[in-house]
Design a protein that fits this description.
With 110 residues, this protein is α+β, with helices and mostly antiparallel strands. 52% of the residues lie in helices and 21% in strands. It has a two-stranded parallel sheet. Strands 3-4 form a two-stranded antiparallel sheet. The longest helix has 30 residues. It is globular. The termini are far apart.
Length: 110
């Protein structure tokens, strides 16, 4: 990580940044995020840890089934709403697949 921080990028992507680290290291990592934000840097955090997202993010975009389904601003953060949104894409994907199957079956019927 230190190597990338010295490059002076404008955008940083962290994928599951606190997985497998202790509480003290996690605190230092969150301080780093705060410092980067104060410098005007954009930080994208991919995480399945809602507590981490609630603590570090100004906005949370929820992806499901390969697409972004919604975005929450800090005032709208809610575990229930985020979990519901994360499954919405799966439901949409299933509904689309069922429609595709019906269309293909109708087309195959003489």
């Amino acid at each position: 990580m230190a190597k990338w921080l010295t490059r002076g990028a404008e955008v940083y992507l962290f994928d599951e940044p606190s997985r497998g680290i202790d509480v003290a290291a996690r605190a230092r990592l969150y301080e780093l995020f705060e410092e980067l934000a104060k410098q005007g840097k954009t930080i994208v955090i991919v995480s399945s840890d809602l507590e981490e997202l609630f603590e570090t993010c100004d906005a949370i975009a929820v992806m499901s089934a390969g697409r972004m389904v919604t975005k929450f601003e800090r005032n709208d953060f809610s575990e229930d709403a985020i979990l519901e949104a994360s499954f919405a894409g799966q439901e949409s994907k299933r509904t689309t697949a069922e429609s595709d199957d019906r269309w293909q079956n109708e087309e195959a019927t003489p």
